[in-house]
Structures
1.
Amino acid sequence: MIHIHEKTLQDLEFSTVLKQVSEHCITVLGNEKALQITPFSTRESLLYNLQLTNEYLSSFDNDNRIPNHGFDAITKEIKLLRIENTYLEVHSLKKIVSMSISTNDIVTFLKKFEDYYPTLHAFASLIEVTKAIIEKVDAIVDRFGDIKDNASPLLFDLRQNINKIKGQINQSFATALNMYHGLEYLDDIRESVVENRRVLAVKAMYRRKVKGSIMGSSKTGSIVYMEPETTMKYTRELNNLEYEENEEVIRILKELTNFIRPFLPLLENYQEFLIAMDVISAKAKYANSMNAILPEISEDKSMLLRDAYHPLLYLNNLQKKAKTFPQTIELKQDSRIIVISGPNAGGKSITLKTVGLLQVMLQSGMLIPVHERSKACLFDRVLSDIGDNQSIENHLSTYSYRLKQMNYFLKKCNKNTLFLIDEFGTGSDPELGGALAETFLEEFYHREAFGIITTHYSNLKILANELPFILNANMLFDEKTLEPLYKLVIGQAGSSFTFEVAQKNGIPFGLINRAKKKIERSKVRFDATIAKLQKERSKLEKTGESLKINEKKKLQEADKLEETNAKIQKKLESYQELYDSNQRLIYLGQKVDDLSDKYFNNKQKKALMDELFKLVQIENSKRKRVTAKEKKVIKAKEEKVKQEAEKVVTVIREQKKEAKKKAIEKPKPKVTLKVGDRVRMNDGKAIGSIDKIEKNKAVVNYGIFTTNVSMDELELVEAMKK
């Protein structure tokens, strides 16, 4: 049996979520129903309702949109149908017909598209489809909302007679009008209408000469409105017929109402079904507004909320066009409890509330804004202690109230419980409150409960480090600016950055140092160590992101290098051909030079010609026969390779010249740094000022912290102004 405490729903602002969901409803009763949503008490009903919402959400992305479920409430009509001898008016009948049509359309549609919406079809199949009410009402009431003439033989005759009498009234009135107008007894307007009857506008002086009944007079008294005597008998007859018509209409409506009365349970089902569809639709629209999904629901107690958003924060930031930072949180058997520490305003409480609110939403049949590969589980209880719970009515302090809460937790906590505690242990003496909080945490741990807490207490951070199934976590901060990065990091406790934050907010160094002396040295060292580790973690996070980006770049560069390698290989082959060609020409040149030298010494022409002819024959034996066109192409290719080679050689020569020039230039004289100079490290960007110089080492003040740096590693940014 699942039970989530009302206090937990208040702490997590669940009512605000319901208000936002209800705004997506299109009916009044649906809106009211949405505001009453509570977590489901059984796993089966919850999973069933999650599927209903998820299937409705899927209808937004396909062509088979579910028909409209809008309706006018028939609550009053249902009450009337329970009372004997009552009858429904025409507008009530029209509402019942409209509701019947809407319900029939949806049920029929879901049956047709059962493959798309199996759970919705199963839900709708419990509703009976009948056209009896629709056909019966349509036979009696026309599309304008009037009772049809042929609704009964008597009504037909009455209306025929009414029309006939109206004709006689008009005819007799026209006769009187013409007669008295000819006698000039009538005013210029001639006629008017009083009490829905046509009357003559008689001049006051002639009222005794006109036969008829006085119906009224003008404001000035100059005109008397009279109904001619000839039309009066027809009017009385008309009144009688209209009364009989009204009686017959009431009889017909009573008969029709008696026909509908046995369908009362069905009409109640129709209304409940359409209210349920309105709420399901509203949940789906709400999910769609924040890209929510149905995560995998695990059978065991393990959850992984990847890229989880706080719904209220996400939608609020969406309106402001501001960024919302998602969190990734995992709870499982070997990491049941997470202790989040770190400075305030870093997002600890939001992370805690995100997990709690998403869990409550999921267990109320709503989809949640997480990554599609997320996994969730269900808890029998979700307990929370969030915010300042000082109780004025009960005269309880915050700490007393929190102790009452802890007592409730101890009674209810077990292996099927998720507990969420913000600022665990605060409100009392830090030493004693911390010890008591540690005992509570140990108790929750031994009961195998799952939970997330936020704290500033060092002993809780140490306990989380010592127990195997509790994890420390912290919210990342920028190590230089101390601005929050709104990113949860599991596996390491967070420093409260108490003194660093105080320094950043302008508290004098002297006061901060005095404060440091007042507390135990070991506490300062512990907090300082955590702060240092947190800064290192922050650096590693940045390095990790940078490495991912670099890895992507390297892969792109590798592809480019492969392409470049292929081009270089092609060029190398061309250069090799050029080199071989040039080597052959050098060899021939040497041979010709040797023959020239020999001829120079012996002056024997015949021997020279024989040697030259032999050399030409040897070279020609190596040649292949090519056409003039092929020869031209080869020559052009060789020329291109030569030009490319010359370009490369020219660049290399220029680089060598530049290197020689730089070697000749004298190095710049080194600047002597002094106390007060603004400097930065050779490979860094942060600028600080020199506070002290000792043995070729400088103490550089960066505002938030100071550091010892070798003088050789510093470069001058700005000399101290004298």
Note: Residues 362 and 368 are 7 Å apart (CA to CA).
2.
Amino acid sequence: MGRQARTETSVVIGAIDPRAVGARRWWALGALTLAVLAVGLDGTILSVALPTLARALHASESNLQWFSSSYLLVLAAAMLPAGLLGDRYGRKKVLLCSLALFALGSAACAAAPSSDAFIAARVLLGVAGAGIIVMSLSALTVLFTKEERPRAVGIWAAANFVALPIGPILGGWLLTHYWWGWVFLINVPVALIGLIAGLALLPESRAARRPGLDVVGIAASIAGLVALIYGLIEAGQHGWSDSVALVSMAAGLGILAAFFVWERRLSRQPGGQPLVDVALFGSQSYTWGVILAAVAMLALIGVLFTLPQYFQGVLGANAMGSGLRLLPLIGGLVVGAVPAAQIVRRVGAKVVVALGFAMLASGLLTGSATSVTSSGTFVAAWMALAGAGMGLATATATSAALSELSEQQSGVGSAVLQALNKTGGPLGTAILGSVLSSTYIAHLALTGVPAAAATAARQSIFGAAAAAAQIHSSALLDSARAAFVSGMDLALIVSGAVALAGVLLAAIFFPRTSALNATPERPAGKEVAVIAAG
């Protein structure tokens, strides 16, 4: 025991005092911003690249869903293990390794010869992205005082939003003028710059008491999420009565229920070290901040999945034009998120979150009136409104959750928040993608269309466009475009209903008082061990 104590003393230099770190912590935040930007660029570029990938890799609508869902699913499933590893072995180590892995995965995406290889590369990126997001968010609770955290969180969130306009425009320009692989290779230098900056600027930290490895909890959380989302994808492709889909969804829900029972039991045992400490959910601000951030993502993800296909498959825009048409949505996100902290101080977090969801719902439900002939002004207006609501709701809910975390809880607490938030991504893509796909197929008019052309048309709007050009049928193309818009409109109605549910949840459950307002920072204790940064 004495030997162990001497070993700890040789590497521990005390808890981080943010004020003692001085201006360096803001430079460190810049390094974290670069790391998050690398992940953000990948997600937004993929949304613009989906139509091009459908042609280049001969991808079906199911493949397109898996291009997004496989990454988001693995990203969500790896969040909790990433938080645990950071708390146990060092958050800086996990972040730097994740950045290196992200660069490797991006190169693998560019080199993928088939849809299956591309999906495998996306899985690798999901693992790396989890480490980057969790460790960068966790560092905010270690580097900054409670008074400074809302500002730091705003800057961190801005990196996600800044990637949204950069990704579509840069990706669209690259897709228009160069080989599609460059949209993924562009992530490599960004990740490497973030790695170098993190190595030079970030201090190393980990939990003072190393958490144990809850192998059962890790395996159960991953297996449950994978089974649940796989079932949702299968239901979208083969119908909700499909036996494989039903069994997979039931198994996923059962495993996740068992996971929470196990975690609660382990938390109550003397000396128990669960993957997720249920005591985290003793705070209403944390619990409902986490839940509502995930609900917002669930509502918005369908828009990000359908709009690039609408712009290119229905309106005939090229990839760069598609990226430019997304700017009203991105502008709305920034306009909503940037002043969120100031608005909270005036009217309270509860009102701001509910207002954000109301604006999001209004934008989405207005968008459900989109037709093949809708003007660009109409589409831009409802996208901007939805984006502003999303920015208000997400920034406020996330800040409310983080404000309740102590330094000791920063790794796993951030991981829980991000895991549930990112689960909204694959859930939204699976559910809304299946709504779009089933409605699209149901509304296709294929009478008199040759069997091969009809099969291609059922796969996607792009398959229909190619088939229509091959058989010289303007009627097939018009039918496919109208069918796709019908599916998109129904998906937006479902998304709007989810946002309305967010309004009700915020009004009923989100606390009236919040720690978002500046409060005196309690003295730093022996909560976080800081390992000397080389």
Note: The chain has two domains: 8-214+275-529, 215-274.
